[in-house]
Design a protein that fits this description.
Elements (H helix, E strand, L loop, with lengths): L1 H4 L2 H22 L8 H33 L8 H33 L3 H5 L10 H28 L7 H34 L4
Helix pairs in contact: 3-4, 3-7, 4-6, 6-7
Length: about 200
């Protein structure tokens, strides 16, 4: 057990194996077949969507609530540990968490038959897709900001691409503002996602 818990990859793999075992053991006890059907695949992609979203928004909030506000308190000689080691790792999981969240969300919406009406924010049906549609568009905007604004500017800040001191300062400012924009949008986005199934607009 100690070998599993001291190796992150083994820990994550073991978590997925445990989830699979729970599915195989508990599903028959509930009188259900373990053979996946369309409803199960919709559930499966919802689960992956939630896992991806936790990774993405968790790291977004880590950056905005923990790392960035505390950077001024870190001695200058210790800051390279953040910019050269921690930040690149955080940003890798951050941007791919965003990608996985969007992809699994779109697949889920397709499997559940509300993709087009949600993207049209409910205007193609009775309005039932409005909350999820608003949430989807907020998520898409946030994903766009991650891949096409925050990440390109962070590459300059972290020295992954050549940039002058002035360009780095401007890039840092832009990345911060768009990261804060995503933090702002994450709150109504999560509200819409939860409201879509739990009557938050009732």
């Amino acid at each position: 057990m100690q070998n599993i818990l001291t190796n992150l990859r083994l820990t994550v793999i073991s978590g997925f194996i445990l989830a699979l075992l729970l599915y195989i053991i508990v599903t028959p006890l509930l009188g259900e077949s373990i053979t996946p059907d369309r409803a199960w695949w919709a559930f499966f992609f919802r689960w992956l969507h939630v896992i991806s979203g936790v990774m993405w928004i968790g790291l977004l909030w880590y950056l905005n609530f923990v790392q960035v506000p505390n950077m001024p308190n870190i001695p200058d000689d210790q800051k390279p540990a953040i910019s050269k080691v921690i930040a690149p790792a955080v940003l890798w999981y951050f941007r791919w968490g965003a990608m996985a969240t969007i992809v699994t969300g779109l697949i889920l919406a397709g499997l559940n038959g509300y993709l087009m009406s949600a993207l049209a924010i409910g205007f193609t049906d009775s309005g039932a897709s409005t909350p999820i549609g608003i949430g989807m568009w907020l998520g898409i905007i946030m994903w766009f900001n991650v891949w096409f604004v925050i990440w390109p500017n962070q590459r300059k800040v972290l020295g992954m691409v050549e940039a002058s001191a002035d360009e780095k300062a401007a890039a840092a400012r832009k990345a911060l503002l768009f990261s804060r924009t995503n933090t702002l949008l994450s709150i109504p986005m999560l509200y819409c996602m939860v409201a879509a199934q739990n009557g938050g607009f009732a």
